[in-house]
Amino acid sequence: MSGSNGAKENSHHKARTSPYPGSEVQRSHVPNEKVAWLVEWKDYNPVEYTAVSVLAGPRWADPQISESTFSPKFNEKDGHVERKSQNGLYEIENGRPRNPAGRTGLVGRGLLGRWGPNHAADPIITRWKRDRSGNKITHPISGKNILQFVAIKRKDCGEWAIPGGMVDPGEKISAALKREFGEEALNSLQKSSAEKRELEEQLQKLFSQEHLVIYKGYVDDPRNTDNAWMETEAVNYHDETGEIMDNLTLEAGDDAGKVKWVDINDKLKLYASHSQFIKLVAEKRDAHWSEDSETDCDGL
Predict the structure, then answer these.
(1) Would you say residue 109 lies in a domain?
(2) What is the pLDDT of residues 126-165, one digit of tens each?
């Protein structure tokens, strides 16, 4: 992203797509040159939309701004709700937070529960691809070792993704990363007490080791609006020997339709900004990414 008031096309593309997810709502068209709030646009007329599921008032959602009992503390920790952005201060206009990446063609909250930032955690679990003898497999063209990550197929849109999810109020990011991976990739919610204890033991081994924070901040997401947006912390936990994950059976659960190990390369088509995160993991682990010797693929 280019600062707090503008956005490069590739970091603010999915947030302008229509129809809005789970609906037939069409956003007002926002051309690339009009995304930035710094560009004056008097005729800007975004569509207002907040999903019925959000307006029903579930525990994970804020009330409407107009409700007299609702006085959120934006840009700070508001009780258990984290309203600070990973990207610094955001503007408040007419009582509503303003998307730091620019215009989206839609106001309200869409499917998002919180006004302003909606915080997610994305655990990227990796291992080296190995042959039957246990040797690392190198790519024949790049000569680099092939890295694999655990991917889930989302039930809502059918796209492959990192098995992440929303951070609960008051929950630490580290706890959210572990919980989401357990729920979506290991089906922990459906396990017996004994199975859960065994699962927890193995997960603790994986999540207590050294890790890499791959990304923190705004995410170009199709659910984003002018007043509500996704932010995430993507963290890579790498099982160097593969022994920890050998003891865990992948099983889709919660929001996941399927789960599997996926080879990392530049051909991946993933949900939201997940391809960019995976590319960063490959770079940091010096793993195979592209068959081209020089590549400038943004992964979107």
Answers:
(1) no
(2) 999 999 999 999 999 999 999 999 998 887 778 888 988 8
Q: What share of the chain is helix, strand, coil (3-state, %, to 5)?
A: 20, 25, 55
| Ranges of H-type helices in the chain | 52-55, 173-185, 193-207, 243-246, 274-284
Q: Is residue 125 part of a domain?
A: yes
Number of domains in the chain: 1
Q: What angle do CA 6, 8, 9 make, to 5 degrees?
A: 125
Containing structural domain, residue 141? 119-285
The residues pairing with 43 across neighbouring beta strands, listed in sequence order, are none
Q: How far apart are CA 229 and CA 215, in angstroms?
A: 16
Answer for the pair 72, 115: CB distance below 8 angstroms, yes or no.
yes
Spatial CB neighbours of 276, under 8 Å, sequence gap ≥ 6? 215, 298, 299, 300
* Angle separating helix axes 173-185 and 193-207, nearest 10 degrees: 130
pLDDT in tens, 173-209: 888 999 988 888 888 888 888 888 888 888 898 898 8
CATH number of the domain where residue 125 is located: 3.90.79.10
247 falls within a domain: yes
**Domain-embedded: residue 274:** yes
Phi, psi (degrees; rounded to nearest 5) at 280: -60, -40
At 208, list the tokens. 């207590």
- Report whether 149 contacts 242 (CB < 8 A): no
Query: Is residue 87 helix, strand or coil?
Result: coil
